[in-house]
Amino acid sequence: MAQDVSTDILVIGGGSAATRAALEAVATGARVMLVDKGEVGQSGSSPHALVGFSVPLLDDADSPELFIEDWANASGGICDRDLVAQCAEHGRGIAEDMERRGVAFIRNADGSWFLSKRAGHSVRRTLMAQGHGKGVHANVILPMRQAILDDGVELREYVMVTRLLLDGDRVAGAHAVDAQGNAFVIRAKSIVLAAGGVNRLYSILCEEVVEHHARTTGDSYALAFHAGAPLIDMEFAQFRDSPPAGPIFGAHYMNALGERIMEKYDPENLECAPRYMMARAVYTENFEGRGPVVWHVEEGQIARSRAPVGTYEAGQVVPITLMFQRLMGGARIDVNAATPVAGLYAAGEASGGVHGGDRMQGCGFLETQTFGGIAGRSAAAFATAHDFAVIDSSAVAAERERLAAPGGDVDPMEMVGTIQAIMWRQAGVVSNREQLEDAIEKLQAIRAEAASNIKTSDLFAAEDVRNLALAAQLVATAKLAREETRSGHGRTDFPASDPAWVKHVRLQRDEKGDVAVDCVPVQERVPA
Description:
Elements: E1 5-12, H1 16-26, E2 32-36, H2 46-49, E3 52-54, H3 64-74, H4 81-100, E4 126-128, H5 141-150, E5 154-157, E6 159-167, E7 170-178, E8 183-193, H6 219-227, E9 231-232, E10 237-242, H7 245-250, E11 253-254, H8 262-265, H9 275-287, E12 294-296, H10 301-305, E13 317-319, E14 321-327, E15 330-332, E16 344-346, E17 351-352, H11 363-385, H12 393-404, H13 412-426, H14 433-452, H15 459-481, E18 503-509, E19 515-521
Parallel strand pairs: 1-2, 1-8, 2-5, 8-16, 15-17
Antiparallel strand pairs: 3-4, 6-7, 7-8, 9-15, 9-18, 10-14, 11-12, 12-13, 18-19
Helix pairs in contact: 1-5, 1-11, 3-4, 4-11, 13-14, 13-15, 14-15
């Protein structure tokens, strides 16, 4: 049995939001511990997926109002404007801080930042991190890792948090296990939940995060759900055209009839349309028999883009397919990154309400850095104002009993494949009531089997499957609830958008442990 520990602030996760939260929290003088189920700088999506970093107010044509308007349009109106305003306020300072920490952005000959216009944006906003050779992404988390070590954050890797521990309606700490299966309790005054999203939810996923070490399996959503924190916008899954060639390389997407497809779907923005529109266009062209959709690489096209990735050659015909990128929802937060559970903060893909139905290209890193910082500062303020809460020993005993229950003979990876196949076929780019109800029934059965009949020799793998199955059920349940088509959510039985659905679908654990569903308003205005 590992030894129980304590800290002022516990940060769960190891990506962009988590490392920024730890840096901001430790700067206040608080004791900060960061735990990651992998290795910071290698695990999760953040180290492998950054090409563009969209920063508002760098273009003379930009303004806070235009930035928020563009963001809201991409979201389908399902974003909380007060949260978006925080991203507008903090963006430039974050970019400057990242450069000071060693992240090199591509610059013009005069030394100014090179800006490009990406999907969903009406003006140029996107910086590009200098890559490390042909097709190799910059890893912006490695300098963040060094920074947290230099600043005195206690780093514990290959540690998985299995449950948050509560004292009434306040967090008191967390139950964790290490890679050898040793269990221990982390006592904390406040917690930042930033363990990423669920890039393993669908069978065809973004190529940058295919490797096993990059996995995220919905741990954040499971921890929030079991702690009683509400989750919103879980129905919005972002699929992208792949490779994401349009806004980066200036490509034209052509169908089998020789038509430039985006002239039909978004004649103004073309391949710089919001990603949900790009995905829907590619899906529709293929589904209706006008595929395959392709990009004919032009002479000099890659060089003109100045993109740090891309191995394409002139004359190449590149098939355009669809891949899952990320889920847009998560635990609902306010402008302080606080959830309704006292002392619990969330940021990055663990949180919901910032992006809504879809996100503009390059804004993921902006959002994770913005709210990672806010969460870290807020958690530090809470820890300063509060003493440790009481940890319920019976809750600890119950969690250890759950984890120690006899396992079965089902391979966790087999279950992962089953979940992914269900989600891709029945709760993907488009769905309908019959598909979703059947998916939910299947996922409930998988959750029951994963609780008792799964191999537990690798406890991390077993918990990954349990969390993934819950996340899948939450997504399918939210999709069933939203009876319309909007942004990244498509229903064949409700093909039109309905103004009455400009609201968040909220999911929460009820007293029986089941998923309760209702709706809450979108924060329409930025408070004065």
